[in-house]
Automatic annotation (TrEMBL):
Places the protein is found: Plastid, Chloroplast
Metabolic or biological pathway, per its Swiss-Prot or TrEMBL entry: Isoprenoid biosynthesis; isopentenyl diphosphate biosynthesis via DXP pathway; isopentenyl diphosphate from 1-deoxy-D-xylulose 5-phosphate: step 1/6
Domain named 1-deoxy-D-xylulose 5-phosphate reductoisomerase N-terminal: residues: 46-174
Region (Disordered): 20-44
Annotated ranges, domain 1-deoxy-D-xylulose 5-phosphate reductoisomerase C-terminal: 188-271
Protein name according to UniProt: 1-deoxy-D-xylulose-5-phosphate reductoisomerase
Pfam families documented for this protein: DXP_redisom_C (PF08436), DXP_reductoisom (PF02670), DXPR_C (PF13288)
Primary localization class, coarse: plastid
Species annotation: Zizania palustris (Northern wild rice)
Cofactor(s) the protein needs: Mg(2+); Mn(2+)
Amino acid sequence: MFQRKNRRAISLRRTCCSMQQAPPPAWPGRAVAEPGRRSWDGPKPISIVGSTGSIGTQTLDIVAENPDKFRVVALAAGSNVTLLADQVKRFKPKLVAVRNESLVDELKEALADCEDKPEIIPGEQGVIEVARHPDAVTVVTGIVGCAGLKPTVAAIEAGKDIALANKETLIAGGPFVLPLAHKHKVKILPADSEHSAIFQCIQGLSEGALRRIILTASGGAFRDWPVDKLKEVKVADALKHPNWNMGKKITVDSATLFNKGLEVIEAHYLFGAEYDDIDIVIHPQSIIHSMVETQDSSVLAQLGWPDMRIPILYTLSWPDRIYCSEVTWPRLDLCKLGSLTFKSPDNVKYPSVDLAYAAGRAGGTMTGVLSAANEKAVELFIAEKIGYLDIFKVVELTCDAHQNELVTSPSLEEIVHYDLWAREYAASLQPSSGLSPVPA
């Protein structure tokens, strides 16, 4: 079966893709700001793809608090028309997109009394137009899943810097997206807490100084549960994250540790570290967001309260640092905190870690298949169609079935095709018959 047997092992079936040349990383072990990159007057113009989701709403909180630093030129959302209309009235973008085309008339009605009505473009094409709006300097990509890939590609082709909060852009699309970003001289700035921490730690490092990346994980809802109790997990149990307030999918991913496995793959693509040089450590307090070890064995860490606004803000302000009021941005007090603790992840409790390393080493379309299968499995779990432990089985079986079709250097079309294939295959697995595929 598709498993990483130990930390130093290559995936079980050592396909030719594991020997392929990796795409150029976004930040090859160091980050240096280029002088003279500023190309706008006044507040920095940004577009937000996924404005009504968690990342989008927190980005708009930052804009609202810093109107002299940022302004919104375009917004795209999926189906939350009520919230989108409120955002339009407050932030006055020039262009708005709603992915669900059937809701366009409802949005227009909600904006009927709006003095400065924006242009509205429905469907996927509208989301793409928001991503490549000519006035935007940076695009915040907050759409979950492979739906965020095409808008991100459009933004890159238009020369926009990417505030990256969509994991699939690199996990599924890394082999295609990274060369494209280099071609268009686009900066990919990580907006999630762990990769932002790494990005901050490598600022100013000399070439070749990075030795190891250490990703921290809270351990999720079941970090203190014995393994034999996991068969009793209910959906409500998995949605109780001890530290972060997040959406259902990412909260379940935190419980399974699939989020950390996916972040290992993302760190490989972002920073060029080999998989043997990326470690995971359980850190229950979620104060250290990640660390890097340099060649002289020094370890650099980024600390802060668990607050997604901090990494989002840094993607928008980089390379600058913006003052934040301690009224709305509490400052870290280590003396009051008391202690920080760490432990190794339990690979029996978290088989997702082995699966992610195996998929990463396989490369090509395998990482996207892993991500898509996990997304579908979590969806089925939340809908109470499969059990908690079935999530791992669904992902492993889907990856195993993909091995003979793996594409090492996929096109965008192939990435999207295998994303859809993985979801369909994962959905076809029947818990009642030991998770075997439904006959065609």
